[in-house]
Design brief:
about 425 residues, about 75% helix
Length: about 425
């Protein structure tokens, strides 16, 4: 008779490859495992409900999703884009820089790579391809690459998911993402300059400096959102979940009352879209919680830790192995599945090797985000391909230099933990 754990793994793979949601596939696989073991299948439901009800932090996810969706329908994204254009648009390959900077700013509000690519991405791709100044494939490539910054700069939905499985502080994880996110932006802009000179991309018409005060003033309400969020969290005024609620309310207030760019009909449609996105993430979390029970019952983390112990791996070798594994998994698995299923297996080993779990979390999240632009799965690649109507391989070809730049940034993030932990320690983290 086939081993129940092996049967559940095979069923999970079969259902996922067949097109079923990975969350539903995990629930089905977990239920089959429980039945084959002779356990009550209702354990799956009990585990799921306990996991959800005991995780107050999870409430931040639908609220951050709602905040991002409101910003997309309001004029906040347009004003932020105009501000970014005034700031860096005057340099060689200017709109490429605008793309990166706008993602950097927008990421301080949405916490989602997909929200960044769909919201800001549509606008900036249109600007870059207008009059043939940049090829559509290049615009798509740099948009996908810069969107990976979104979940690294706080707030970050993937960081919340990592906090769920690692029992680490969301606030310190948010702080740990600041410098790595800025580093990723810098390496992308450097690569954009190199490519701009090689391909002789145009220097865009600069917004006159006399217009800068007006552009900045109009963008101030939007720029204040990350300040309010992070100031509230690190000032002890708000928890991350409360900050997410403030973000959603502030985005609605500024869009509807200050900019007057949101109608009641648009807001209703936004609520529906946010509910659908939240349900998708919720099913994934539910599936992960039930499948974690299976993994725990089978002592997979302990077995893996013992197996790795045979090779006498040090922290550096372990982190190299983790990077290679996650980059491969990112080609075939969705980022949320990696964080919720795979990462918990390696957390005990990371602890045993003395690796700081906040630093480990940032490494895991950056790897998961790079998976979003790594073929063949590459969710962001499919999104920008849909926007630009460009063949996937053409986009991948233009993306390769940016992937190399991001891999360099990943190396620094992985092997210089003090760089990642400097800001959290400044804010009181003892790790």
């Amino acid at each position: 008779m086939i081993d129940p754990f092996l049967a559940s793994i095979l069923l999970l793979a079969f259902l996922a490859i067949g097109g079923l949601s990975i969350g539903l596939a995990m629930i089905c696989a977990s239920t089959v495992y429980l039945m084959m073991r002779g356990f009550d299948p209702s354990i799956a439901s009990e585990t799921l409900l306990q996991g959800l009800f005991n995780s107050y932090t999870l409430l931040a996810i639908p609220l951050f999703v709602l905040a991002a969706d409101i910003m997309n329908i309001g004029s906040l994204a347009d004003r932020l884009l105009r501000f970014s254009e005034a700031l860096v648009g005057r340099f060689k390959g200017g709109l490429g820089h605008v793309n990166v900077v706008s993602s950097l700013i927008f990421s301080g509000m949405s916490g989602s790579a997909v929200a960044d690519a769909v919201g800001m991405g549509k606008i900036i791709i249109g600007m870059m391809t207008k009059d043939g100044r940049y090829t559509a494939s290049y615009a798509a490539a740099i948009t996908a690459a810069s969107a990976t910054i979104g979940p690294i700069i706080p707030p970050s939905i993937p960081m919340v998911l990592y906090a769920l499985v690692s029992d680490q502080s969301v606030g310190y994880l948010f702080a740990a993402g600041m410098l790595p996110g800025l580093l990723m932006a810098v390496v992308l802009m450097v690569m954009n300059v190199i490519i701009a000179y090689r391909r002789d991309f145009p220097t865009d018409n600069a917004i006159p400096l006399r217009e800068m005060p007006g552009v900045t003033f109009r963008a101030i309400p939007a720029l204040l959102l990350p300040v309010i969020l992070l100031g509230g969290i690190y000032g002890g005024v708000m928890t991350p979940t409360e900050a997410a609620a403030v973000a959603a309310f502030y985005a609605l207030f500024v869009s509807a009352a200050f900019y007057r760019s949101v109608t009641a009909g648009q807001f209703y449609q936004t609520l529906l879209a946010s509910a659908k996105s939240t349900a998708t993430i919720g099913i994934l979390i539910a599936g992960a919680l039930t499948f974690q029970y299976v993994i725990t019952r089978e002592n997979v983390p302990v077995s893996l830790s013992n197996w790795l112990g045979q090779y006498d791996l040090g922290p550096v070798q372990f982190l190299i192995a983790i990077n290679l594994l996650f980059l491969v998994l990112g080609c075939i698995l969705e980022s949320g599945a990696i964080l919720l299923i795979i990462v918990p297996i390696f957390i005990p080993t990371a602890q045993a090797l003395g690796i700081d779990l906040v630093h480990f979390g940032v490494v895991c999240v950056v790897n998961a985000m790079l998976g979003l632009i790594t073929p063949p799965y590459g969710l962001l690649l499919f999104i920008v391909s849909s926007i630009t109507k460009q063949p996937l391989m053409r986009i991948v070809r233009d993306l390769l230099p940016f992937l190399i730049a991001l891999f360099i940034a990943l190396g620094i993030i992985t092997f210089v933990p003090d760089f990642v932990l400097w800001l959290p320690r400044l804010l009181g983290y003892k790790g």
